[in-house]
Write a structure and sequence with these properties.
By secondary structure, this protein is of the alpha+beta class. It has helices spanning 2-21, 97-109; strands at 29-35, 38-39, 50-54, 60-64, 69-77, 80-88, 110-116, 119-124, 129-136. The protein has 2 helices and 9 strands; from the N terminus they run αββββββαβββ.
């Protein structure tokens, strides 16, 4: 019985430590659900906007605006989040150009982030939610 209890306590401690080591923002595909309070729209399933924050090597961010791909750098310290230069492809899309423009403007205004369960919110310096994402399978 004591051995079983020790094994159980060890397993629980391992799960807790694993949870602490997990990055709360990085290495998750975040599907866009809202830009400046407006629901995200996708012209087609394969063109749904998303963002991925990478944790390996230099901190890089990449994704899709709903029309064009983007990539760049980011910096994160606690709740603070800023983006460096972001490069985008420049394809013309019949749908989604207005959302793309709003997405890009909102991204540049971001100064912090918060995660509530499976939702990621990117906020500006006034605390307004500019972009809202939900975790998605890669």
């Amino acid at each position: 019985m004591k051995r079983l209890r020790r094994m159980l306590v060890g397993a629980i401690a391992g799960v807790i430590l694993l949870g602490c080591a997990t990055k709360p923002l990085e290495d998750i595909r975040w599907q866009l659900v809202e830009v400046d309070g407006m629901p995200a729209v996708a012209a087609a399933e394969e063109r749904q906007a998303f963002i991925v924050f990478e944790s390996r090597g230099p901190l890089r961010v990449s994704g899709l605006t709903g029309c064009n791909r983007f990539a760049g750098s980011y910096a994160r310290r606690g709740p603070s989040l800023t983006f460096g230069s972001i490069a985008t492809t420049r394809m013309a899309c019949p749908d989604g150009m207005a959302q793309e423009q709003a997405f890009e403007q909102a991204l540049q205004a971001v100064s912090s982030w918060r995660r509530i369960d499976g939702t990621l919110e990117l906020l500006d310096d006034q605390g307004a939610v500019r972009l809202r994402f939900e975790s998605a399978r890669p």
